[in-house]
Amino acid sequence: MDLRRLVYFVAVAEELHFGRAASRLAIAQPPLSRQIAQLESDLGVILIDRSRSQIRLTQAGSVLLERARDVLERLDRTHREIKRIGEGFSGHLRVAFVGSATYGVLPNVIKAFRSAYPDVELALSAMNNAEQKRAVIQREIDIAVARPSLDDEELKSEPLLQEPLILALSDTSPLLEQQVTRLSALKSETFVLYPRKPRPSFADHILNICLEEGFIPKSQVLAQDYQTAISLVSVGVGIALVPKSVSQAERPGVAYRAYEGHNPGTALSLNYRRDNRMPHLFNFLKVAQDVVRRQRKQ
């Protein structure tokens, strides 16, 4: 059944007048009459009784009008839904992030995105860099919020935030009594590093910073993730170098302070497949960049 003829039929059936229906459709009356006749021929039934001065629908025409309205309404609704998905205003987006990203800018990005795109289902999951890399390459997620970035020829990485490192200590640590804490003076301390695997990782980044200061920590405790590492710090197992943003969330048993010495900082990045052209993805990137820009101005 020709969809255009169905639209024409509904107009005639609702107006019960070929002239008014033709004006409503912005076409001439003779072509409209031919299209309705052709629809009747295709279906093998009479839809409109033209035997009187006032046309009326046959039983078959009444049934078709009811069904046609439903079809056209569903089609219009589908068109609007698909258009919203195509523009990134509806649908879904899968975002994975490293644990330490949940402190600082990422919660604000998530909140801003949900406010701007309330009809987009946002699926969030915590993963380390290795898990993120595998998942984004395998198209199991759309965006990976990594620290510092994911390196692969199939992926594009866009910087989100650069921040300094700070010391995380037990709130009973004697180091808190010092006016200035030099990193080079901490070589005898136990360093809590994360993640344990895979390597190289953020743990190696910290070890390289220590090496720049002329030492490798003699005592090292490896944790699988940031949450475990900061828990170990809180009970006095050791100290850790962590992104400054994590200090924004108060943690019982943990104190934070700046240190003197080599501090290249750490970065968060947004990583995605180069061939992923989802509008939802680019909307998320723009929201994230806008949030970071506003925070820098504050």
Walk me through the structure:
There is one protein chain. This protein has nine helices and twelve strands. It has 298 residues and is an alpha/beta fold. The protein is rod-shaped. 31% of the residues are buried. The model has no long low-confidence stretch (mean pLDDT 92).
Short description:
Helices cover 42% and strands 20% of the residues. The protein has 298 residues and is of the alpha/beta class. α5 links the parallel β3 (91-97) and β4 (120-126).
Low-confidence stretches: none
Sheet with the most strands, sense and barrel status: 5 strands, mixed
Level-2 CATH architecture of the largest domain: 3-Layer(aba) Sandwich
Strand order of the largest sheet: 4-3-5-12-6
- Enter the CATH topology name of the largest domain: D-Maltodextrin-Binding Protein, domain 2
Question: Could you say how many structural domains there are in total?
Answer: 3
Q: What shape does the CA trace take?
A: rod-shaped
Approximate helicity band? 40-55%
Q: Briefly note the structural class of the backbone.
A: alpha/beta
State the CATH superfamily name of the largest domain.
Periplasmic binding protein-like II
Number of strands: 12
Cα Rg: 32 Å
Proportion of strand residues = 15-25%
Enumerate how many helices there are, as a single number: 9
Query: What's the CATH C level of the largest domain?
Result: Alpha Beta
End-to-end gap:
61 Å
Q: SSE order in H/E notation? A: HHHEEHEHEHEEEEHEHEEEH
- Mean pLDDT across every amino acid position: 92
